[in-house]
Each structure stands twice: as C-alpha cells, then as structure tokens.
Amino acid sequence: AAAPFLQIASAIPMQYTIPQRAMECLYEKLEQGEKATMSVFITSGAELKGTAIFEGPVAPPTADTGKDLQDAIARYRAGSGSVVDESTVDFEQPDDWDDDDDWDDDDYADDEMDDEDVKDMTLEQKARRQRQIEEYKRRREAARKRRTARRKRARPTEGEPRQKTYMAKQPGWYRACVKGSWYQITAEIELRKASSLGDVDKETGHVISYGYRAMLNEEKEMDKFVAEEGGVKDEDLQVTREQLKKLNRLLNEIKEKQQDERHRLSIHAATNEHSHSRMVLSSLLETVLFMLVTGFQVYTIRKWFSGSPMLGR
C-alpha cells in the first residue's frame, strides 16, 4: 500500500525557500548526450522573479561521495566543454514571443495546369517546372519544421512552470540552480533526466514528468493482469484494461490541470498583493509630499505677514 503513495509523492515538485541573492541547486549525474529538463516555478515572494542557471559538468562522474562532489564543485570553472545557461524567469511579466510565420504557402503555390498545357511544354519547360515543384516542396517542408520547432519552444501558459531541456556535452555532474532576486522567494524546482524517466515528450521536447512516468508504470501493471480459467474472458478483460487506462490518463490530466490552476491562483494573488503594496507606497509618498509642500506654503505665508526681507518687503 506504500508504493502508490511513494509514486505520487515523487511526482510533486519540491519547494525551496531561497533567501535574498542566495542560490538553491539540484544535482544530477548525466551521461554524454543525455537530455535533462530543468523546471522552475516561483510560487511566492515580494516579486515572482529569479535567475535560472544550468551548468556543468561541475564534477567528474567518478565523484561518488558528498565530499568528492563538494571538492569538485569548489574547483569548478566553466570550460569549452561545459554547458552554461543563465536566464531570468519572471512570472509577473509575460514573455516576449514572436509567433509571426515567415512562410506563406500561397507565395509558392503551384499553379494548376491542364494535361494539354503540360503536353505543349518543351522538355526545358517541363524540367524547369519540375525544379520549381521540388523547390516548393522543399521550402514548404522547411516551413513545417520551423513551425514544429516554434511550437516546441512555445511560451508556457499562465500557471505552467518554465521548462528548458539541455543535452550533456560531457559525462559528469550537472546542476540546475535558482538564484533569488533582491527579495526572498519560494520556488518549485525540478531536474529530470531521460535515463531515470525513460522518455522525451515528442511534442514539447522535454523529459516527461514524474507524474506521467508513474502513470505509464501503472499502465504496465495493468497489462500484467491475466484472465483466470473459468472466469472473465480475455476479450472482456482487454476492454476493461483499455477503459482503466483511459480513466488513468484522464485522472493524470485532471491532476496536472489542478496543479496549473493552483499555480495560476498563486500568481494572481501575488500580483494583486504586489499591486496593492505599490499603490499604498505611492499614496504614502504622495501624502508626505503634499504635507511638505503645505508646510512650506504655511511657512512662506507666515514670513510674508511677519515682514521678512526674504520676500522683498
């Protein structure tokens, strides 16, 4: 009965409280050419902003103990064979994303021609037309690949974590870090590697999540069920398996949507709180400025009536 709980618990990203200008890191040992996905979501803080850093190898693959790893990290210096990426993640400001398509199929659409028109063409014209058709197909295929790549890099919707996938250039220990801004923040951080989870999502290009891996493992367990003699037929059991898999996938989608909704609500709550704080601070500054101006005016008028030479009397 404990196994399902462990699977569910492993599917929940860990939350880390990161002090001002401090850094929290996760470490994983990667093989050469292995893919790893870094996932970050900032849940709370005076501003939902931080710096995501992925770098490595920070230690050789032979570092097996904590002391060896710490010693190697202390000596680490980024070199030519290293992967170093640093970017700002801000969950209160939308990401800039250019979704303009630089390819228009209509610009290279093949003119329809009758069979008689084709027959009347010379060999040179037919060859030129064939080259035009091949060029059109090649450019259309290139445009399709660009659109596919654009969808993979698409900005996540509100409530989804920021994810980025890297490939290890060399074997060794890599780390994914989140650095706090000028304020303390709380962040959910994940570092998923392909060798542990076993697959990369073909649609997103990211390593699949722990929750999705747990769902696939449950489906494998369902496939092990066999019909007993004199009991349910294999055909009926197969139908039951398929229905259970559909329910399992639906449940996984519901859990993902619930998590995204919780994230979205936390972003809205933090944004409203920050907007209110800025409004209160702005009102306070305006009040102080108004009082200073009023005090100066009262002082000036009193000096005026007292006959002070500073006003030309």
Automatic annotation (TrEMBL):
Compartment annotation: Membrane
Keyword tags: Coiled coil, Membrane, Signal, Transmembrane, Transmembrane helix
Annotated InterPro entries: Emp24-like (IPR015720), GOLD_dom (IPR009038)
Gene Ontology CC annotations of this record: membrane
TM helices/strands, residue ranges: none
Annotated membrane topology: Single-pass type I membrane protein
Residues annotated as domain GOLD: 13-306
Region feature (Disordered): 83-164
Record-linked SMART domains: EMP24_GP25L (SM01190)
Record keyword Transmembrane helix present: yes
Main location: membrane
Residue stretches in coiled coil: 237-264
Bias-annotated ranges (Acidic residues): 87-118
Composition bias type Basic and acidic residues, residue spans: 119-138
Record's compositionally biased regions (Basic residues): 139-154
Family, per entry: Belongs to the EMP24/GP25L family.
Name of this chain's protein: GOLD domain-containing protein
